[in-house]
Specification:
With 472 residues, the chain is α/β, with parallel strands linked by helices. It is 61% helix and 8% strand. It is elongated and about 85 Å long. The N and C termini lie far apart (61 Å).
Length: 472
Amino acid sequence: MPDIGIGNYQQQTLEQLLKTNLSYEVPFFQREFSWGKDDWDDLLEDINKAMKLKKGHFFGFMTFRKPQNGIIHIIEGQQRLATVTIFISVVRDILQELDDDHWRRLNEEYIKSTDPLNREIPPFLKLVLSEMNKDFFKKYIQEENFPSRKLEKFKTEKKVNLSNQLIFQCYRFFYEALEETTEKLSEKDRKDYLDEVIRTILREFIIITAEVEDSFAAYNIFQTLNDRGLDLTVTDLLKTYLFEKVGESWREAKEKWDAIREILSVINTNAFLRHYWLSTHGVVQEKHLLKEIANKIKNKAEVFKFLEDLKGEAEVYEALLNPNIGYWANKTIVDLLNELQTLTTQMTLPLLMAGSRLHEKEYKEFINILRLCISFTFRYLTIAEAEHKVLEKLFSDIAIELRKGTIKNAEQIKKKLLVEYPDDDTFAKLFLKKEIKVAKVAKYILTKIDDFLSPDKEKYSDKITLEHILPR
């Protein structure tokens, strides 16, 4: 069997996973706590169902790096482990408030732990979250206290980030749910119920764990699994890889990475990374992108140069998808970009990322490139519905030549495009038979025909409906 870097598969209960003298850590470069009410509801429902049916519950897959120096890095599973830790902490705090000594066992076995060989060493935390969350998580979740006191204490906190707010909302959610369920029970029955809840989640929740050597092996898993909580993307794994390469300079790298993510705050970062690679290096499938980048970016200096390049490209990419006069300083460019978005928002981006370099000095050249892209996209994709893969490679090849300087203007791009350009006769036949089902494209076509037939007619409004041009 070929080695794919994934091994040591095991079926484990949460009790077996947590009842260890090792510490699970979320690396500083991974995302913060992000599970919300729907996820907490799901967990509570799963617990109640497992208690009622008296049978095991499959809690998904978790992936870890091999232990090093008593620490296990979580590759996948941090959201679930964090939420489970919150739940156990709530039960522990309630039991402490009820003066039930069982709270100490929960605390020592599943939340904190001591070194069995040296009891003088202070207890260490079973779970350490990423930089943004770890201090708050320790203070409000892992440190024992009565729930009522924690709720009061939280009211005095100022400027709590959104992720940490979620953590505390999760604590409050589980506390209120357990209080509502047990409010009519006697104190003894209440304690028995809480013991049963804990027994269920620890012994009946089953996970499949695996160990990996590196981030690439982890990505093989996420290409095929589609379970709740499996949310690592090529962006997450790239961040992991880059930060590992810069070592102690990770904070500086993180600042640059955060700046890029801020620019792309409402844009799919995975799509951006792939389009950047298409525009600079060539065609690559998303599942192979991380490996391609790793083959090019191998040391600290290359990482920082790569991050600087990405920042500049991100600014262009955002302006292509959300065109505004403030960036382009030319209304025609903004209008053409909006027109192109009616037809496609993806295929032309690698070419335009490279072609945009011409706009600062030569508005006309970039405008001509935009018009070429619109004409070609309309004929090739909208009407002919030709193969996307051919166009992707064509635009990628042209983009790379633009960056190298072997192609310098729109006329040279046109010659490249003509190789795949549908001729007039073919286009006319296809156009007459074409059925347009997308309203905005139908409106676009009819508006263009109307403008062509009546070029001197005064335009009363940009807000025009299909019925204004031709009744449906």
